[in-house]
Design brief:
Shape of chain B: elongated
Number of strands of chain A: 10
Oligomer: heterodimer
Distance between the termini of chain B: 8 Å
Number of strands of chain B: 2
Largest interface: A-B, 41 and 41 residues
Order of helices and strands of chain B: HHEEHHHHHHHHHH
Largest sheet of chain A: 5 strands, mixed
Structural class of chain B: mainly alpha
Strand order of the largest sheet of chain A: 2-1-10-5-6
Number of helices of chain B: 12
Helix content of chain B: 55-70%
Strand content of chain A: 15-25%
């Protein structure tokens, strides 16, 4: 082995060792500071982890763009829905009078809130864009109560890390981390464009998460669980989206 | 031109690589990433092959234009009566992972290029070509389909330099910018990049067009590589060598004459194992 190639061999070895240990340190730090998404396993794990970690470092408290009233879409697009189950149809027939939102898990006071209970919380209205992963979008005015208000009333326990939320429709559930759950624009939405929230847009109750793609804004919410781990929900990937092949974190 | 060539090659090393190892590695990493981005990007586009301008756009609004392909979602009216298989899940995962790999590779390449003077030496136009007249002389040579001279195998001509500069410093930054402008999370922290483009749908349309320009570059790039001598150019970008070293040293006096063997014709001969004829070396000299 000539002198030059030995030197090259040594420097390459040192660089490789530094690289590998750097990645190991970064991974440990990322885990400790909650920068690893629940679907970080598998071949696309590195990309997802980079996206989620980068955004949590840069956008933890940033606000989704809001628009003037003049930009509210005249013809918002109601996406296709799976056929309604019997549970939903019964509520629909009763005008959603008995619709309730259950909040349990790591909260001091588990609660069951009617729609009028929710209306007694502070009201917030925002004009934000619904962005579908397919590529289309529309702007709407969304009216409801910030999720953080309801969570504070229920008393979040300090070990809470995620909020899992379920639609009354089967197999439709998502989860968000506390950065999004406590975010002022994450809205338990019951009205839209100055009227009740139409069923096709998720009425009577939809969780709007405007900093993420539309599929995180689950329609017909009736149950929420505050938790410190997503391991025991579904397949442990965080939500229904990764089970269907889509990223858990949709802030891209 | 010969003096340019010996400048580009290190005078101390009689047989320097045509492309530095760093360039070769980042070139192929970028190629793999771009291929992944292209396939996954196409998959994502067919879920809504309609394009708009401004902030919003959906099936209830008029598109600026449509791509005439069947969609992978049944709600999109395409007139084909056929819905393509929906591959958005893995396509999106792959698209963003490949985007990260491409951006990190590009960042490493840019830092390396600035540090080593690669951009200054190999990509910015050679002194002789820095005038419009010099540039058009090279363009005219191309248009007349004149065979490139020997020096071109060792150094880029002005048109190549312009094309590579356009891709490295214009198209790639633009495609990253328009891509980031499609991220609602990124937009919440940095709204200006999407707002100056005129809104989300404008950013999406521009992302599509910029990607199209990069694809166009890729097609031209591959055609040129084939025309200039596929085997020799591929070998230069994979191993860094133009032809096997023993043949060079065997056929010629060491040092200065290595530059004479680099025409596509001679390298095609050598790739079959024949030694380089002295006449070819002479011919190749300007």
């Amino acid at each position: 082995m000539s002198k030059i190639s030995r030197r090259k061999f040594v420097t390459t070895g040192v660089a490789a060792t530094a690289g590998v240990s750097g990645i190991a340190v970064a991974a440990t730090l990322a885990k400790r500071y909650g920068l690893v998404p629940p679907d970080s396993g598998g071949i696309y794990g590195p990309g997802e982890t980079l996206t989620y970690a980068a955004q949590r470092l840069l956008t933890k408290h940033s606000l989704a763009r809001e628009f003037p009233r003049s930009m509210i879409s005249k013809t918002p697009f109601a996406n296709e829905l799976a056929p309604f189950g019997d549970a939903f149809k019964k509520h629909q027939a009763a005008g959603f009078a008995d619709w309730r939102l259950f909040i349990d898990g790591m909260v001091a006071h588990p609660a069951s809130l009617s729609l009028s209970d929710l209306r007694s919380f502070p009201v917030r209205s925002q004009i934000t864009e619904v962005v579908c992963e397919e590529g289309w979008s529309y702007v709407g005015q969304w009216i409801g109560t910030p999720l953080v208000e309801v969570l504070n009333a229920a008393g979040i326990l300090p070990q809470a890390r995620y909020v899992v939320y379920f639609s009354i429709q089967p197999d439709w559930w998502e989860s968000i981390d506390m950065a999004d759950a406590l975010h002022p624009q994450t809205l338990l939405t019951y009205a839209m464009n100055d009227g009740d929230l139409p069923v096709v847009f998720g009425g009577p109750l939809r969780l709007r998460v405007p900093r993420q793609l539309g599929y995180k804004s689950v329609k017909f919410i009736n149950h929420m669980t505050v938790t410190d781990s997503l391991k025991h929900f579904g397949k442990g990937l965080g939500s229904a989206a990764p089970e269907g092949g889509y990223a858990w974190y949709a802030g891209i | 031109m010969l003096s340019d060539v010996s400048d580009a090659a290190s005078p101390r090393n009689s047989n320097p690589p045509r492309h530095a190892a760093f360039v070769r590695v980042t070139h192929w990493l970028t190629a793999i990433c771009f291929f992944a981005l292209l396939i996954s990007g196409a998959e994502i586009v067919v879920s809504h092959p309609r394009f708009y301008w401004g902030e919003t756009g959906n099936l209830t609004t008029r598109p600026m234009f449509k791509i005439p392909v069947p969609a992978s979602r049944n709600l999109v009216p395409t007139g084909y009566g056929y819905v393509m298989p929906d591959q958005n899940g893995w396509s999106r995962y792959l698209h963003f992972q490949a985007a990260w790999a491409a951006v990190l590779t590009g960042l490493a390449y840019a830092l390396w290029g600035l540090w080593t003077g690669h951009f200054r030496k190999n990509l910015f136009p050679a002194p002789a070509d820095r005038t419009w007249r010099g540039f058009w002389r090279v363009v005219a040579t191309h248009i007349r389909f004149t065979r490139p001279d020997a020096a071109e195998a060792l150094s880029y001509n002005a048109v190549q330099r312009a094309a590579y500069l356009l891709v490295v410093f214009v198209l790639f930054p633009l495609v990253i910018w328009t891509g980031l402008a499609l991220s609602p999370g990124f937009n919440s922290a940095f709204p200006a990049p999407v707002n100056v483009l005129g809104g989300r749908q404008s950013a999406r349309t521009l992302h599509f067009f910029v990607s199209g320009f990069i694809l166009l570059f890729l097609i031209v790039h591959i055609v040129m590589v084939v025309l200039a001598g596929f085997t020799s150019r591929m070998r230069a970008m994979i191993t860094g060598t133009m032809i096997t070293g023993t043949m060079i040293t065997g056929a010629m006096p060491a040092g200065a004459t290595t530059t004479g063997t680099m025409t596509p014709e001679t390298s095609a001969q050598t790739s079959t194992g024949a030694t380089i004829p002295e006449s070819a070396i002479e011919e190749a000299r300007p």
